[in-house]
Amino acid sequence: MPDRILALDFGTRTGWAALSDGHVESGVQTFDLARGESTGMRFIRFRRWLEEILALTRPGLCVYEAAHHRGGHATELLVGMATRLQEICAEKGIEYTAVHSATLKKASCGSGRADKAAMLAEARRRFPGREIADDNEADALMLLEYARAKFGETAEAKAKGGLTQADIARSQSRYLRGAAESLRKGGQA
Fold it and tell me: What structural domains does the chain harbor?
């Protein structure tokens, strides 16, 4: 398993959690706009913050909650943040993968339909003594736990640890197949 992982729950209030040599740090970063600012300013601030946190945490893997394509402002924001993460990770040679929210909820709470309160309660149970600001930070912590569980076995089997491109491709392929199946059934990806 990579000894450094950065987990991100994108949004105007982006939750983040970082694992570094067994130690976990987490928080929430806000990307509000001042009155009269264009939405592009949010992405400029996000990219600057993302480059800073990547430099500080030096992850071998970034994991983030996949954007749902429901349309509107939220989709535009989440997809914009995801593409910036992918771009920067590609530039820096950092592995990255997305996790569908239902997959994360099922792994965390036992149900793919768990609500925000259930995810927050589960994060507080798994991280006792940690003051968790909100559901965004809770989701980032649960993404981190998911990555540790999901990719730990894969990496343990490797002499030097870490994920290969094939591991990431398999994970992304499973996500895309699930999204395509959901669309075929008339649901939303």
Answer: 4-184 (3.30.420.10)
